[in-house]
Amino acid sequence: MTSTRIMTLAGAALLAGCAVGPNYEGPRPKLPQAWSALGEDGKGQASVAVATTADIKEWWRAFEDPVLDSLVERALAANLDLRGAAARVREARAFRKIAVGGLLPEVGATGSYERVRLSENGTIPWDGSAVDLYQAGFDASWEIDVFGGNRRRLEAAEGDLQASVEALADVRVSLLAEVARSYVELRGYQGRIAISRQNLDAQRVTAEITRARLDAGQVTELDVARAEAQVSTTASAIPALEAAARRTIHGIEVLLAREPGALSSELSEAAPLPTAPPEIPVGLPTDLLRRRPDIRQAERELAAATARIGVATADLYPRFFLMGSFGLNSLDASDFLTAGSKAWSIGPSIRWSLFEGGRIRANIEVQNTRQKQAALRFEAMLLEALRDVEDGLINHSKEQVRRAHLAQAVVSYHRAVELAGQRYTQGLVDFLSIIDAQRSLYVAQDALIQSEQTIVTNSIGLYKAVGGGWRPEQDVRMVRVEPNLRAP
To answer: Which of 186, 212, 312, 415 has CB atoms 3.0–4.6 Å from 248's, for a disulfide?
Structure first.
């Protein structure tokens, strides 16, 4: 190919603004129109209220717990993982600036003074004397991005920056859910401790009555042994619950970037579980593409991987530069700033790697493979997100049914304890009936408080599954959606 044809090709490509490599087109996921968990009985789950337009950026306020609100705000201000993700955004922004610089001319300045003596026997005739040499000037170079390699590099850096922004948002979403879950877990442990102590007090009273009846010759020592064993068994559960509550406080402290023990006085006092909000703004499956930062991050990573194919492909083609320099050269300092000392040059240059041992084409294959991997990651991420919401809806609905049964069981066991006590004093049942009724009541009460905790935790999980807490840091290009098709 002659130099004229090369320059003609370069000029035509530059005027057309072409860039080698594939142009990015967002994925077209096929999503269901509605959540299957809400329609398995043909009319939806009555226990799950779904809103499609509610603002979920500050979803934790729906629990109406001032302590939770305070913990969340402090975590957002101090959490180390969140600060690390923010630092990675700044890093990506700096890389983008580097890519922008590749599209701009490079200008450098030089200046020197030398005492020079040339060889008398060299190619240039010289009388052997030494001279002074003064030099100063500017050098400029500008790569004319004919085939778009630098533009693709900027496109990839832009995708990386946007992906890091979404990664920051994903850390934020996970942090909010983790703080809320840990707080609910703490209140759950405290509630279970309170239930254990209430039952322990009742069982101690029963044991004292039994001892008194033994002294009166109305019961045997076996009944006393059973009553005391019941007291010891219930008492043995409390230390484990107290240890679990303290470990949970430590976990909250770490999330807030505080040393263990810093929040002990604030959180050790028992408080009731937050109340789950009556309405969970799940929205539609297509809303996940807008709300879930991990999906948005995967889409931006796919865009960056696509652009890098163009960066690698550009190495197959020549690179064109416009070079120029201007300076002053003089053997005498008094002549340095005169017109006669001026020197300059300007002209185009070309650089083309004609043989690289297959390195360029291998790199193109690498980038194509990475782009396919990024596409698969996006697809997998989307499926995982759909599963998260579907699982959350099922768990939220079924746990409310379970909690209703447990509440009825607690009422029934309370009645059973009363009846067993009355019949025992009348001599109609043995002491084992009282022990069994009290044990069953304690188990049911403990299961009920755990179920109430699970309901609140499931609500938090649903908020996380739909991207609750996400805040758009900047306008990020969205993927295109075909909402009328159900995923296979």
So the answer is: 186
